[in-house]
Every structure is written in structure tokens, then in C-alpha cells.
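Operator note (shift B, R.M.): manual run for Alpha/beta hydrolase domain-containing protein requested after the automated queue skipped it. Running by hand, logging everything below so the morning shift can see what happened. Input copied straight from the record, untouched. If output looks odd, do not overwrite the archive copy; leave it for review.
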Amino acid sequence: MSLNTLRAVALEGARDAAFLSPARWTAEPHNRLEDHGYGVFEYAVSGVARLYADGAARPPATVGTVSCTTRTLVVRPLTDDAFSGHVHVELLNPSTGRDFPMYWPDLACHLLRRGDAYVGMTCKNVTTEALRRMSPERYGDLSFPHDGAVWDLLGSLATTLRSPQGGGLLTGLREPTRILTTGWSQSGSFLRTYLSEGLHEQHCDETGRTVVDAFLIGVSSGGFGPMGYVNVDRHGEMDFDTDLRPVGGRLVQLPMDDARRVVRGSHVPVMELMSEDEALHHLWHQRPDSDVPGDLYRCYQLPGRGHESGLLDESLRYADHAQARAEEPSAAPTLRHGASRYLLAAAVENLLRWADGVSAPRIDPITVMARPGSRLDADGLDYGGTFVLSDADGHALGGMRHLEVDLPVACSWREPDGPMTIGTWHCEPFGPTELARRYTSPERLRQLASERARRLADRGCYLPEDVADAVDDFCRSAGIF
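Run finished. Output pasted below as returned.
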């Protein structure tokens, strides 16, 4: 058996009924998709996937096949004239037990202005079953018998999108020129497995063409033991405590010194994009950036941002919480990282340009050190011996710089006694006296921010077209002098 395309069946009323439909979110730009010429569609997609055995063989040996029906959420331009030709495929994060959006919310503004299409795929048994429970009449035909089906389903989805009309997923649009595939947190680790096990290379050989043009692995480090690398044959769930230590048994995982935990040998560009949280447990698995043909790699790390601090306030997703019959999110304030929309847009644009032959800028990593005598924990969970070198305000040195850390108007820090792997972050704004001491006046702050943002754009940290908006947002965040 080789890779096959998927059969797509439209699920009606996607705009108002699909779980995670951004048109139901009560915040711009999601609630104005029609104004941008975009529509929301949902499909049940079916195909046969191989299951693979863990072991020394690359690609891994096939041990069987399963028939699967999962779902895709498609947000796309309605007309071909408005379509850029770029498609972003996200493996929807399954860590909450339900599909969780980690890419579209932060990139929506950029994707809409470009005319890019977005395809989110349910990629695990636990999230498929959650959909079936929350809406049996809509999702009752979904079936994901084994989590190991994700590898062939990913390749099949990308192959389907390259067929006429996207195999029914991109009706009325031309064949994509570029497909970027991304996963975040746990599903980011899925992509590390997909690449390191040689499955993308196998899928390219089977189809006779490049299946995915670029990979973005978000907030996932191969150095985080239980979730940094997902075994190719893994199936089922485990309970974890707040430090993500397995509860009720030891998790069988890839040894921490296994070479597969470090992405190497991709003929298409791969970017690992990490927050400061992941930088702390990436120290032992760092590798150099590379432009060598057959090993295209970048790592961008974002100082002052934690694992979970995206832009979308969960309280805005009332319809999703109601559909999932889930508790409303806590009323406690959650730190949001406003610069994310600009930094991630720049990172994605750097990656797509690289797929077109223009090397992505290199950006120094966050400066992480290990205390004398520290060793890599055999379970990949204890990173108490690593620490970030910081400036006088406590902001990390190095990484993908932005105005909030280069011209601080507040102090952001990671709670030292909080969870070890996914930190609790806080932000304390400066008062008027401190703002005036540092910057004299709002006008002077804006001048400094404009100059700094232009320099950061030259380094690839901002897009030139975003500089003015980034400066406006930053200056609004400064408070009163």
C-alpha cells in the first residue's frame, strides 16, 4: 500500500455549527470573515492509513492498516482571485481532550490579508470521540481507530489538497503553490516524529512530488520527555500532573539521548518556534541552524512569552464551550502576549519565503545556561538546573526580539514556584514615574519604538508592513506617563 487521497463529504452549516468555527468567536477578525471574502467549511474526510512499528528501521515497518474518517475545518477565500495559493494545515492540538486552536487565532489577521487558506484537522482518537459525544448527529460517522493513523492521514491530506479543487476541500480554488504544515505543543511533537521517522520522505517518494513545502513546529521541544517525541506506534491517553509527570505509571518514551528527538535531514524548510518555556528544556537538544541542502532548519525562540500565552481570550468562545458541554473558562486573568501576532507573522513569512528559495534569517537563541553539575534528566522532566540569562528588568537575553523586551513598559516574568514545564507568567506595568524616567514622554517612547521596530524588521523579527501597527499597539500598552 502507498499513500492515497482522502474522500471528502461536506458537513452542512459549518459557519454556525462546526466546532472551532472562528465565525462563532466574538472578536475581530473572526466575526467579520465575510467582510474579508472568507467562508467557513467543514468536511468529513475518509481514507485508509497504515500503522507503523516503533524500532530502528527508517521509515518504520508497516504492521497493518485502518480505515479512518476524521474531520477538517476549512477557512478560505471564496473566490480564486482572492486566493494567494498558500494553504496552512494545522494538526489541531488534542491535549485538552478536545480540539484546541493554537495557530489560527494568532495568525488570522496575517492569513486574511494574504488571502491564504487554513485547514485544521482532528488528529487523534480522543478528540474524535469528543466530537462524536458533543454532536452525534453531526460527527457520529467519525472514526479514528488508532492514533498511529495520523502519519498517513497527514500525508494524505496534503496530497488531497494538491489534487484538482483540493479533492473537494478547496472548491473553486486553483491548486496550491505552497502547503505549510504546523502543529503546536503536543501536535507539534507529532511533526517531529513525522520528520524524524522518515515518513515525510517516504510520502514524497510514494507520490513522486513534495508533499509538504514547509513545517512549523510550535511550542514543542524534543527535550521535553513525555511529549517532546510521540512514539510512532503510540495510542491512548495518560493522566499527568501539573508538571506533566505521568500519574499512575511510568510513560514508555523514547530515550532522551535518542537522535530522533532532534530534527535533521529535511529537504524542505523546518522551523521550530519556541517560547521561553520550551527554551529552558531545549538546552540539551539544541542544534545549529542549517542551509545545507537536505538539512534545512531554523529555531526561533520568543523571550517573554510562555507556552500558553496566545492572543485569543477563551471567554470569547462561548459557542465552542457550550457545544462541548464544558465548564466556562476561569474568570482569572490570563496573560496575553500582544506581540505574538507580529512575531508569528514574520516567522511564517520567513518560512514560506524559504520554501521559495530565500533563506530565512538566522536569529540567536535565548541564552540558557546549566548550573554546575547539572545533567539531563533521564525522564526529561526536571529542568531545575537550567536558567535563562536576563537583563536588569528580568527579560531574557537573545531570541526573537520585540518591543516589549527591548523597550520595556512592563516587567514580564515566569513564576519560579509554578509548574516546571509550562510556566505561569505574570506582567507588571511600570507606573508613570518609571515610564517618565526611562522615556521622558509618550512622544519620545513612540520615536524610540519606531526606530527599534524598523531595525527589528531588518533582522526578520517583524514584517515591514506591520511596523506601524506594532508600534501603535505597543505605545497603547504603555499606560499613562
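Quick read of the result: Residues 271 and 298 are 5 Å apart (CA to CA). The chain has a mean pLDDT of 93.
Leaving this for review. - R.M.
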